[in-house]
Design goal:
Layout: H1 22-27, E1 46-50, E2 54-55, H2 67-80, E3 86-91, E4 94-99, H3 101-109, E5 114-119, H4 124-137, H5 143-157, H6 161-168, H7 172-180, H8 186-193, H9 199-205, H10 211-221, H11 225-235, H12 257-272, E6 275-281, E7 284-290, H13 294-305
Parallel strand pairs: 2-4, 3-5
Antiparallel strand pairs: 1-5, 3-4, 6-7
Family: Belongs to the ParB family.
Biased composition (Basic and acidic residues): 30-42
Biased composition (Polar residues): 1-11
Length: 309
């Protein structure tokens, strides 16, 4: 991740009181206003600004942008305009993007000269908080980008894992498990960023003595998370496998039903950031999601309904 804008405000080591109240609380009521098409306004209401007056934030959590998706968004913007405003903050003589860089990129591609924005006076910590929450609610971050943002908020701004869990509506264990992925070698993290490996694959590789070699075997062989776990186990010294030279094909692809269900529970838990339990039988079964806050429940409801924030 690029270094964040240091600015003139020194990072505060005190936990923010606004944590846990969601994106709307961080942005204020202005985030719910409709864009205006008339005269430019002041304050925190929506106004129009030239696209050239804005620059991306160097600490933006999201680093990987799908060019095809941006092109599709640009085509939509060219036909209907930019409906949702971009959130910016004053930065020198111009403005810095807080939330909405993908929309800004698409608006440029659609050759818009002006876009609706909300201008907010925000500190570096608040800027990163808002960018993180917006991307998570839109499911726009991969596991490494999300973990990097958590680490920055903890290391540079003094947040705790508990406070971050309230902020993003996920469990503290989800935050901790994600941050462990940053212990992987850079080349393995790059495979996750490129979405060639999932978070489940990456977690399995944390226990490997040579995660880089095994990660490339996993990608080449298109292995499942369960087979990746078996590959890691077989590669450990003293195992019955043939060590790091073990072939993925030598790994059995079947396992007991309980182990498969446990793996599925873990994968779903990683995606949702919640405790997941599956009770399965030949006649069917139940899927149980456990939440601890209303923010977590609201986030699950939004994802199940397909609602965008």
């Amino acid at each position: 991740m690029s270094e964040s804008d240091t600015g003139s405000n020194a990072p505060s080591r005190k936990p923010r009181q606004g944590l846990g109240r969601g994106l709307s609380a961080l942005l204020g009521d202005a985030a719910r206003e409709e864009p205006t098409t008339g005269d430019r306004e002041t304050g925190t209401s929506v106004r129009l600004l030239p696209v050239t007056a804005m620059t991306p934030h160097p600490g933006q959590p999201r680093r990987h942008f799908d060019e095809e998706a941006i092109t599709e968004l640009a085509n939509s913007i060219a036909q209907r305009g930019l409906i949702q405003p971009i959130v910016v903050r004053p930065h020198g003589k111009d403005y810095q993007i807080v939330a909405g860089e993908r929309r800004w990129r698409a608006a440029q591609r659609a050759r818009l000269h002006e876009v609706p924005v909300i201008v907010r006076e925000l500190s570096d910590a608040e800027t990163l908080e808002i960018a993180l929450v917006e991307n998570i609610q839109r499911r726009d971050l991969n596991a490494i980008e999300e973990a990097d943002a958590y680490r920055k908020l903890i290391d540079e701004f003094g947040h705790t894992q508990e406070a971050l869990a309230r902020l993003v509506g996920k469990s503290r264990s989800h935050i901790a498990n994600l941050m462990r992925l940053l212990d992987l070698p850079d080349d393995v993290q790059a495979l996750v960023t490129e979405e060639r490996l999932t978070m489940g694959h990456a977690r399995a590789l944390l226990g490997a003595s040579d995660p880089s070699t095994l990660a490339h075997k996993v990608v080449t062989s298109e292995m499942s998370v369960r087979d990746t776990e078996k590959l890691v186990k077989a590669a450990r010294p003293g195992s019955n496998g043939s060590g790091r030279n073990a072939s993925p094909r030598a790994i059995p692809t079947h396992d007991s039903g309980n182990a498969d269900i446990a793996a599925l529970e873990q994968q779903l838990g990683d995606v949702l950031g919640l405790k997941v339990r599956i009770a399965h039988s030949e006649q069917g079964g139940t899927l149980t999601l456990s939440y601890s806050t209303l923010d977590q429940l609201d986030l699950v409801c939004q994802r199940l309904s397909g609602e965008t924030i």
